[in-house]
Amino acid sequence: MLSDALSYPLNGDSPLRTILVGGLLSLLTVFVIPVFFLQGYYVRILRGASSGDSEPPTFSDWGDLLVDGLKLFAVNLLVSLVVLVVMFVVAAIFGAGSLLSGAGPAADPGAGVGGIFAVFGVLGFLLFVAVVLAVGFVAPGMFANFAREDSIAAAFDVSTIIDGVTTSEYLVAWVLAVVVGLVLGSIASLLSVVVVGIFGLFYVQVVTYYLFGRGFAAGLDEKRGGAATTY
């Protein structure tokens, strides 16, 4: 799977053009709008990888790219809201515990309640970390299902998402994507000081989205008895 993913951005008739366009859009993300075109391209990668395409999509039909990018942004926003709600709850518990425990040793009842809140605060923090890790693991599957079905609602189809992400195929793809992001992403980031790294970062993004799309689709097909992607 890893070798396929690493060669994927270089397949097709015009891989250099695609990487150049993707890198230029990455350079222009300070103007915001190019971000949505890139997001739309990543949706196409997820969609193509999910259906077994061995060649990356091209930058064409820019209107559709923009629409898909806006949809993926909306999905990201909704997922982020879940994390923010958890963060708010944890912060509220921490704050309440600090205030009550600050009553001092003379105020035994308050100190006792503060201690309880402090315990809940620690548990809440651990819960928050667990939620963030879980979201980081599940979110790519949500994005992949959204791309497959071309529907924002599909990103929150709980049964389908669970079926897809609770498989060895998805786990392997997710781990590989993280490793590629950490290793090659770090190298490309260092090279960004001479601009060429920007194009490297785009290449890394293409590889990781391919892995997410392929891993989710293969896992889902395997779980539901379909024709799984050959590895």
Element string (H = helix, E = strand): HHHHHHHH
Oligomer: single chain
Helices, by number, come to 8
- Uncertain residue ranges: 227-231
Number of individual domains: 1
Biggest beta-sheet profile: none
Strand content: under 5%
Structural class: mainly alpha
State the share of residues found in helices, binned by percent: over 70%
Give a verbal description of the structure.
- It contains eight helices and no strands.
- It starts with a helix and ends in an 8-residue tail after the last helix.
- It is globular, with a radius of gyration of 21 Å.
- The protein has 231 residues and is mostly helical.
- Helix 3 (33-50) crosses helix 4 (62-101), helix 3 crosses helix 5 (108-149) and helix 5 (108-149) crosses helix 6.
- The model is unreliable at 227-231 (pLDDT under 50).
- The protein has one domain (2-223).
- The chain crosses the membrane at residues 20-38, 72-96, 116-139, 171-204.
Task: Give a concise summary.
The chain is mainly alpha-helical and 231 residues long.
Any key phrases for this structure?
mainly alpha; disordered C terminus; 77% helix; 231 residues; DUF4013
